[in-house]
Design goal:
heterotetramer, A: alpha/beta, Rossmann fold, 2 domains, six-stranded mixed beta sheet, 31% helix, B: mainly alpha, 8 helices, globular, binds adenosine-5'-diphosphate, binds magnesium ion
Chain lengths: 332, 208, 332, 208
């Protein structure tokens, strides 16, 4: 395993310590991993909290700050946080107006956050959960744990964050998040497996001429293995998968995220974006906003995901609203 | 089962998980995200310490503390499942000693909790496929007057058989379900850890 | 080679086309590769132009925009641009106040930009060149081509960009850039080699337990090969190399850049930053600003560089000044 | 040398570079950034086309166009060096024919331009280590009354010898100098491309 690390066991806390050192505007509890804004909950504002396994940086810790999350609770690598972390994060985020909890749809995440929500409910805190399940590589049926939460999380957290920041009420913030999720679909492919510090070697072996298609963000193998083809062909399949699941008519407007999985350089992501843009143009879909970069990663995996979100009218001002976080920053 | 045996069981699981940590991780890497070994290890490390530090007044207290520790240390799918299951089992055993039938009722409560929380059916390729036959075997042995050791041995055997039976299954719950047909041909890591836990009980109760 | 690409020959133009599609606020000449602000030169403002080989994205194209560059001229991968590209970029950036050309110190870059500057001089345009040479892995002696320009380029372009944006005159903008360069030193290590599309395989073979120490940003081998050690040990050597070359006294203030080379995930960069922060604290040096992320990359190389810049008084307001580019954005 | 021979020379370099593209890249990867093959290929591809499309009125025009094309297509270190060198050579040959001594003077001007622009001394492990002995051999052969073919052959032989002599050198110019002692043991890619260029001249002038 080739990584900058001291020991596998301290990887997470060491990385978090560095994050804390780099971002004095945030407050980082190195014991629990919970990250909050240094100034605490914002009076009169609905809280927004997210969390999940680590290894997806900048998600979620990198999205804490003005215009986005109030707190994040990262778990161990690829392991959903425990309920205690989630309750700590929500308590820190709650100013009395209630808190929206953004949860990616994984069995572990759902269960742990549910337990946290019960505890918080018992304490009299209002908590609304927004479940993100955008990954069309997984069929949403009784034969699976349901679609996974992946790239759309960026959109949900930014737009719900904008809604909370402008003073919307708890139900409205949650509703904004849910509508973004409902309007979004994603699909990912991996060129290489990723290596968790504890495993010390890649999660799967992938020959030089093969790729994993329909992967998630936890280093698991995808739906199928294919021969490596040209970017144009790969991206065309990805866009088809996304739009087959949730068609967009000619004339619609979309927000597109081309998200790197951690080991793919920016130039390749732009190349992929160019293919997406051409394909959507052919279909008469206008891309009104885009984000190209590493947002929801899978450690050092080479690969990318494509998220297409129908840009419903009220999404754009909330996407454009000021944001000041380590991972996303504009307008302030 | 007395308090000391409960403690020995937890320590036994801790040792088994320590020993099998890497294998659990590899099994999970094949169909999931590879963290089941470290998850179980982190949880039972803490549980063994918690149980050693406490002065329990009942068998159930040992299991409840173990469950609570798992919930607050493990995360992932296995943390809440094993954690609440053990808490449910613990609630049933509020005396200093428990007869085999009472332990059987506690294990039944644990299984119910796993099924309620996770919603998995037998055949979905999860820990349920090891736990359900194990609990069944335990209860049957205890009901027919079997001693703890014998019932636990039957449970461990059944758990291991159920664990092996997950190999040809296609997963319908948890991360492995994302793989669809590609999940076939791999043993479920949670079923393996369940089998380890039942075997640890059998070992702890071997003399009973 | 595992990359998202169509053909090796079209990699660069395809990536640039995607960049153009993603950033309508910029104007991209797909023939020449020159990127300018869509609204052209800013009246009354000194122009700021940079360029160099491609493969370092977001540098330089991603730093075109308000508060930073007016134009960038990317060459082929790891190949300095030709004089025609540089002249096109400067002409687009020049509003009559003169233009500062930021050039990284490589034989090819220096010669090509010099030829461009001659041509532009003949046309009556005023051009000042700022040479960036921060990489202490290379001795600055007659036995080498001199220190390379690497991570400090981010600081030079941002701070000179701030100087130009606030209306400073040509000589002042150039002077700001030169002083930032003089105050900065960098050092990089690679965990893996990178693969150029045309070569199709890694530039060098590196065993699983070895790293290249003192690498540049063009996939070349480093000064020496070493066993992989803990992040703490590696970073300690890197910081020593930087501060041995340009010592900072206890009590000084620094801007620190921990820069990913393209294939290293953010969590590792933060881990590295944590080590740097601890080491500088031990030496009594206060980090007053930091940037942790991929800024000056080397395609898909896993590795990082550390840049330490003495934060001279006037640097901070210029670093903090608003910037709105694809690769760096705050304050607007 | 007449105009046609100059064209044949440029085409010959184009073919040699096409053939050796990969090797030039590999040599450059060992001590530099691996682009020398694609750089030369891109440049001479364009130069061959430019020279084919033009209707030159002098030998020098062919070389000047080649040089200008290299400057505007290659980039990197080799682009300006080879480009301005060929332009300098071209300026010396403004007639339809050039005698060997005139070609020698043109090559001398090219070498001077490379040395002026790049500042490299013989022994610095650059193209100069192939070009300097080649020009020297050419001029000596021409001065002693040798015909173009013989002078060019002497130059090509000297270039190849000079190229091979770069292997044990430690680079002091260009990217290879960043490697310090690690640059020892590799042939300089620019010296190789220079040798290719001189050999292409010898081949084009074989019958002269
Ligand atoms: N819905 C479920 N019901 C029962 N068991 C489940 C369920 N989902 C997952 N599991 C069990 O959890 C195990 C995985 O645990 P672990 O790897 O620790 O968590 P995660 O899947 O969150 O990474 C699986 O092997 C399976 O036995
Ligand atoms: N200062 C110099 N003087 C003469 N030749 C040089 C100098 N620097 C580099 N070269 C030559 O250029 C060659 C490299 O060319 P190329 O790879 O195309 O450009 P770059 O080094 O910019 O990638 C070297 O092998 C060397 O022969
Ligand atoms: Mg997990
Ligand atoms: Mg797992
Ligand atoms: Mg080059
Ligand atoms: Mg080169």
């Amino acid at each position: 395993m080739k990584k900058f690390l001291n020991t596998a066991d301290t990887y997470l806390t060491d990385a978090l310590a560095g994050f804390a050192a780099a971002h004095p505007e945030l407050s980082v509890n190195l014991e629990s991993g919970v990250v909050t804004r240094a100034r605490g909950a914002v009076a009169g504002k609905v809280g927004l909290v997210s969390g999940g396994g680590s290894g997806h940086e900048p998600l979620h810790t990198g999205f804490v700050g003005e215009g986005m999350l109030d707190a994040a609770c990262p778990g161990e690598i690829f392991t959903s946080p425990v309920p205690d972390q989630a309750t700590e994060a929500v308590r820190a985020a709650d100013s009395g107006e209630g808190t929206v909890l953004v949860v990616k749809n994984y069995t572990g995440d759902v269960m742990n956050f549910e337990m946290a929500a019960e505890t918080l409910g018992d304490e009299g805190l209002q908590v609304e959960t927004v479940l993100v399940d955008d990954d069309v590589a997984v069929e949403d049926s009784t034969f699976t744990a349901g679609r996974r939460g992946t790239g759309a999380t960026l959109l949900v957290e930014k737009i719900a964050g904008g809604s909370a920041a402008r003073g919307d009420a708890l139900a409205e913030v949650a509703e904004a998040g849910r509508r973004v999720n409902a309007a979004s679909r994603s699909f990912a492919v991996a060129l290489t497996a990723c290596t968790t510090p504890s495993a010390g070697r890649p999660g799967f072996d992938l020959p030089e001429d093969e790729i994993e298609v329909g992967v998630g963000i936890h280093g698991e193998p995808g739906r199928r293995r294919e021969k490596l083809r040209s970017a144009g062909e790969i991206v065309s399949d990805m866009v088809d998968a996304v739009l087959d699941d949730r068609p967009l008519e000619s004339g619609s407007e979309a927000i597109v995220v081309v998200n790197g999985l951690g080991g793919t350089p920016l130039s390749e992501l732009y190349l992929v974006y160019g293919e997406v843009a051409a394909l959507l143009e052919e279909r008469g879909i206008t891309i009104v906003r885009n984000a190209v970069g590493d947002y929801v990663t899978s450690l050092d995996m080479a690969g990318c995901s494509i998220t297409i979100c129908e840009a419903q009218e009220d999404f754009l001002p909330l996407w454009d609203a000021p944001v000041n976080t380590p991972g996303l920053r504009w307008g302030v | 089962m007395d308090i000391e045996l409960a403690r020995t069981w937890v320590r036994g699981i801790g040792a088994a998980v320590e020993r099998e940590r890497e294998r659990l991780g590899e099994l999970d890497a094949a169909v999931g995200d590879g963290d089941h070994g470290t998850n179980m290890h982190r949880g039972f490390d803490a549980a063994v310490a918690a149980v050693a530090a406490m002065d329990p007044d009942s068998v159930g207290a040992v299991l409840t503390t173990t469950g609570t520790t798992l919930v607050s240390k493990v995360g992932g799918a296995s943390g809440p499942l094993y954690g609440t299951a053990l808490r449910a089992a613990g609630k049933k055993l509020d005396a200093e000693r428990a007869e085999p039938a009472e332990v059987g009722a506690a294990l039944t409560a644990a299984l119910e909790e796993v099924r309620r929380l996770g919603g998995a059916q037998p055949g979905d390729k999860t820990m349920v496929d090891a736990l359900a036959p194990a609990v069944d075997a335990f209860v049957r042995a205890a009901d027919s007057g079997g001693r703890l050791g014998a019932a636990a041995r039957a449970a461990a055997d059944a758990a291991e058989e159920g664990m092996r039976a997950t190999e040809p299954m296609q997963a319908r719950k948890g991360r492995a379900s994302y793989l669809g047909e590609r999940s076939i041909g791999h043993v479920d890591p949670g079923a393996v850890s369940t089998a380890l836990m039942m075997r640890a009980l059998a070992d702890a109760a071997a003399e009973c």
